[in-house]
Design goal:
By secondary structure, the protein is α+β, with helices and mostly antiparallel strands. It has 8 helices and 4 strands. α1 crosses α4. Its cofactor is a divalent metal cation. GO terms for molecular function: hydrolase activity; RNA endonuclease activity.
Length: about 280
């Protein structure tokens, strides 16, 4: 199980390039990827996104890629700047314009800058190596955070189980109290406790407040959660669904047996805390 929160970073260097990659992820309903760089990565952006999706299923992922050339690169095409300068002089002469040398140079330079349409193989290799190492580091971080979430959730599951045991221990006592109240009311009306009307009323009330099914389903949900906590892959949405079902069951139990309202409140509180944790699970 992974958290959606994590940080990964890596640096790759070769003879010509140094690439530093920093990846941060936080929780999100889907997968959102944001890429920033000091270099034009548009030719390979789709490949970068695909690689990230191979590692991550959910979360808002911010990627910062800083590229530093180790060898000086000429920002302009020298041959082109000379041709542009000559062309500007010819045009200026034809038009009868007098241009200063620095003006001609600035214009020629502006129209001679190199455009990076493709990345060199050396840069691509270094970039992908850096990105993959940063993703591996991010996964390590997310798993570590996921382990912390798992441990906290297991504590809360044990608390819920303890509360359920308390309900089961006291359930019969509560049911007997309710049964005795019916009998006392019958006596006030002059009916013996063996009267069929009294027995029918007791049977009816006890059937309406029977919570065995709710307890059984809640226990089943808890077992499902335990299983998911030990699973790999995307389990966050599944956990959220199970918790919603468990919340519905405990509501029903509370409505049937108001005598356990305090325990029900405690269980609901633990379920809400579990939901908060699950919101950060991939």
């Amino acid at each position: 199980m992974q958290s959606m929160t994590g940080v990964g970073k890596a640096v790759c260097e070769n003879e010509s390039w140094k690439v530093s990659t920093l990846i941060k992820s936080v929780n999100s309903r889907g997968l959102d990827i944001f890429i920033k760089s000091n270099y034009n990565l548009s030719p390979i952006e789709m490949s970068i996104r695909k690689l990230i999706r191979d590692f991550i299923a959910r979360g808002t992922v911010s990627v910062q890629i800083d590229i530093t050339p180790k060898k000086a690169e000429t920002p302009v095409d020298i041959g082109k700047i000379l041709l542009n300068a000559e062309m500007i002089k010819i045009i200026a002469k034809e038009l009868g314009l007098k241009l200063m040398d620095d003006t001609i140079f600035q214009i020629a330079w502006k129209h001679s800058e190199r455009t990076m349409e493709e990345l060199s193989p050396q840069l691509e290799d270094c970039l992908y190596a850096s990105l993959q190492s940063a993703l591996n580091d991010l996964i390590r971080s997310r798993k570590e955070e996921g382990q912390h979430l798992k441990e906290d959730m297991e504590v809360r599951i044990r608390r819920i189980e303890s509360f359920l045991e308390s309900i089961e221990r006291q359930k019969e006592e509560v049911l007997n109290l309710i049964k005795n109240r019916v009998i006392e009311k019958a006596k006030e009306l002059g009916l013996p406790d063996t009267h069929h009307t009294v027995l029918s009323e007791i049977t009816f009330i006890l059937s309406r407040i029977d919570v065995d099914e709710e307890i059984t389903r809640i226990k089943s949900h808890l077992q499902k959660i335990k299983s998911l906590l030990n699973s790999e892959g995307e389990v966050g949405r599944k956990l959220d669904f199970v918790l919603q079902e468990m919340h519905r069951e405990i509501n029903t139990l509370g409505n049937k047996l108001p005598e356990f309202s305090q325990v029900v409140v405690e269980i609901k509180s633990e379920i809400d805390r579990l939901k908060q944790q699950v919101a950060n699970v991939e």
